[in-house]
Amino acid sequence: MATSASNITSTHPAVFVLMGIPGLEHLHNWISIPFCSAYTLALLGNCTLLFIIQADAALHEPMYLFLAMLATIDLVLSSTTLPKMLAVFWFRDREISFYGCLVQMFFLHSFSIMESAVLLAMAFDRYVAICKPLHYTTVLTGPLITKIGMAAVARAVTLMTPLPFLLKRFHYCRGPMIAHCYCEHMAVVRLACGDTRFNNIYGIAVAMFIVVLDLLFVILSYIFILRAVLQLASQEARYKAFGTCVSHIGAILAFYTPVVISSVMHRVARQAAPHVHILFANFYLLFPPMINPIIYGVKTKQIRERVLGLFPRKNV
């Protein structure tokens, strides 16, 4: 009887079925057009950034190494979900294995946490560059940048490793249909029977810990930066100093704004149709990987010049 009870508590379906965007199934083909366009731009933009930074030794500086980390994370983050999402939209290929679902979820949430950490590291980079310019090269050394990257990975893996094990222990009696485009943690938890309170609390606690803590330190960094900029003698020096932060501020807004909007929507607009929440969740996944290369390509002179250099000019 003990063995039988154990089997019941750990029963899970061989496959889950991704429904896509419930309520908008008839529009899947049309919705796939902006999704596919955003993914294509994300691939092209981030691969271009990585190629330029890797090929040009002059860009092997802390700011650009952090940018390379951000581009790598964005590539993995979008590639974890978008190919399967497009398969659901185009080919009605909705099945995903149970363990495949857990792997997708692990990568999705882990790399989101890593992106938040890298944005925080980039804020620290701007703080040192503007507030401690004479110590920039001695503070942000290669070994320190490597340690920051490893710490970002270690934090994400540590926080997300429990998720697959927590989900594996449930009995899924509410069927295999996930009302989402990808294996989002809470969408899977809703299919489970038994007491899921710990999963709910753990998910909210991790999200709040990451967003609040990282965003707090980012804001503190910019308070010190703003104070240092305002103390500069000339207005031109102020514009130049703060101009080096514009791209990073854009990346922060691109990452955190959808997170905050989605969080507010879940609490304020609980009666909204499910597809509204799912579209916001997809926007959070699609927008930062697509827009970050554009922000840095347009606003960072060194990147912009290298990108333009890839296209040979015609002699008139």
Automatic annotation (TrEMBL):
Keyword Lipoprotein annotated: no
GO molecular function per UniProt: G protein-coupled receptor activity; olfactory receptor activity
GO cellular component, one term: plasma membrane
Name of the featured protein: Olfactory receptor
Record keywords, A-Z: Cell membrane, G-protein coupled receptor, Membrane, Olfaction, Receptor, Sensory transduction, Transducer, Transmembrane, Transmembrane helix
Stated family: Belongs to the G-protein coupled receptor 1 family.
Metal-binding keyword on record: no
Pfam families per UniProt: 7tm_4
CDD domains for this protein: 7tmA_OR52K-like (cd15948)
Transmembrane annotation, as ranges: 30-52, 64-90, 96-124, 136-157, 201-225, 237-256, 276-298
Record's bilayer topology term: Multi-pass membrane protein
Biological role stated in the UniProt entry: Putative odorant or sperm cell receptor. Odorant receptor.
Subcellular location: Cell membrane; Membrane
Record organism: Mustela putorius furo
